[in-house]
Design brief:
Its EC number is 4.2.1.136, 5.1.99.6. It comes from Nocardioides zeae. The protein is an alpha/beta fold. It is built from 16 helices and 18 strands. The strands form 3 sheets. An 8-stranded mixed sheet has the order 12-11-13-14-15-16-17-18, sandwiched between helices. The chain has a 7-stranded parallel sheet with strand order 4-3-2-5-6-7-9, with helices on both faces. Strands 8-1-10 form a 3-stranded mixed sheet. Helix 3 links the parallel strand 2 and strand 3. The radius of gyration is 25 Å and the shape is elongated. Bound molecules: ligand NAX, adenosine-5'-diphosphate and potassium ion.
Length: 474
Amino acid sequence: MRAAHTEAQVRAAEEALMAGLPPGALMQRAASGLAHAVLALLDGAYGRRVTLLVGGGDNGGDALFAGALLARRGAAVDAVLLTESPHEAGLAALRAAGGRVRRGTAAPRELPDLVVDGIVGIGGRPGLRDDTVAALEAHAPAGSGVTVVAVDVPSGVEVDTGRTPEDAHVRADVTVTFGTHKVAHLVDPAARACGVVQLVDIGLAPHLPAPAVEALQAADVAALLPRPTPASHKYSRGVVGVRAGSGRYPGAGLLAVAGAASGLVGMVRYVGDPTVLDRVREAHPEVVGVGRVQAWTVGSGGDNRAGAALRAALADEVPLVVDAEALRHLDAPVRREGGEPVPAVLTPHAGELAALLDVERAEVEADQLASARRAAERYDAVVLLKGSHSVVAHPDGRVRVNTSSTPWLATAGAGDVLAGLIGALLAGGLAPYDAASVGAWLHGAAATYASQGGPVVATQVAAAIPEVVRDLLT
Ligand SMILES: NC(=O)C1=CN([C@@H]2O[C@H](COP(=O)(O)OP(=O)(O)OC[C@H]3O[C@@H](n4cnc5c(N)ncnc54)[C@H](O)[C@@H]3O)[C@@H](O)[C@H]2O)[C@@H](O)CC1
Ligand SMILES: Nc1ncnc2c1ncn2[C@@H]1O[C@H](COP(=O)(O)OP(=O)(O)O)[C@@H](O)[C@H]1O
Ligand SMILES: [K+]
């Protein structure tokens, strides 16, 4: 599991760890990890030009000590001070190692190979001052190819929320972080500013509490996956029912069935528009009609009958996935007629979540973590906010973020496949929170697998699910 913590959690853990260490030991660990990451990126130090952008806190200290290490290895290291009070010991170390120190935002005569963003870390306020933006532009102009390495977090993003409320922030190619991931490394839009995140172990783990946000890794997914035993039969593995697609969107019914029929349950039933049913049977001869199910997927590509389909599924006293058109017919909290709670997974994209919360889409996109949490609480259901790093929020406040995807997955019908797949996982016995997060992981991994770096369509994503599962289990 990849764990991400808040600033306060990190500071408390750091305090506990430092109590047993000599002063400055943690910064040395951080700086050494940072310097080694830079050395790997530059494939050596000798003759390489590195510029440090240095703020007034310990984040700048990390950059200065790492710069000293790089200078001792033969790199030409320049520190640009963006503060009146840089980390004194760090500055002395850099100078002693032969590094040069400058102030001001003037452009260098020659661009460096790599810029280290040591402007602010977890102590930073969101946004960057104008002079900082100018210094950044002068040393790593957009499109220049200068590699940008952020120390701990890209300066200017909001560390605990993943928001980027001020547009001014660093956009890094690589972020080198310490001790644990921070929320901003996982949650968009901040996660997009991090580039590749590398974690340096500084010994913090024993002092860390339960994470604020986590991300499943392949081994976690493998451990959670329902799988058959020698005693299994098709009913014991679970039956998923799909109420999706319509005369207007027949393909969505087919794609939801394709996601459900990826072999993770014993049987798939399709209930809905007769013309869609005929096409489902042609494409998936193993799919059957009306009967008992252990979970429903409702709403993908639905029409004005989606409300009735939702009511019928709710009446069945089994867990359900509520997608697309069916989301419009939901009441908060999600309840059966009679008022009992229903285990449910809602799968909105940002526009649909905005409608569920009665806010603007832009607000959801800007504050994905809080929006998903708020909806999970209000609807008393697991909410999967779809995006490049989909957010899965539990009504009790827990959150998982999915990082297995590829931008090529942003393609029509991909959401229908996901809804069917999560329905199958619910029918297979997973709790809604696990079904949603395992489903999002498999879906993203299937897209990545099918894409191989190139374009994919939703049908190919569904077809790649068994291959991804096979890889996981063997
Ligand atoms: N907490 C930990 O476990 C560790 C922390 N370390 C480093 O220490 C960092 C935290 O250091 P600090 O607490 O000193 O805080 P930061 O260095 O993140 O920032 C605080 C300083 O920046 C100024 N500042 C805040 N927002 C600003 C903005 N938007 N523009 C310009 N200046 C701004 C503040 O006035 C203050 O001087 C971490 O991110 C990490 O890099 C590491 O050295 C080792 C371990
Ligand atoms: N930029 C992106 N990178 C990775 N995955 C994405 C991106 N944008 C969207 N996705 C994923 O693609 C799918 C799109 O689903 P959705 O918006 O419901 O489309 P549709 O309704 O056409 O099926 C979701 O699983 C979402 O997480
Ligand atoms: K930084």
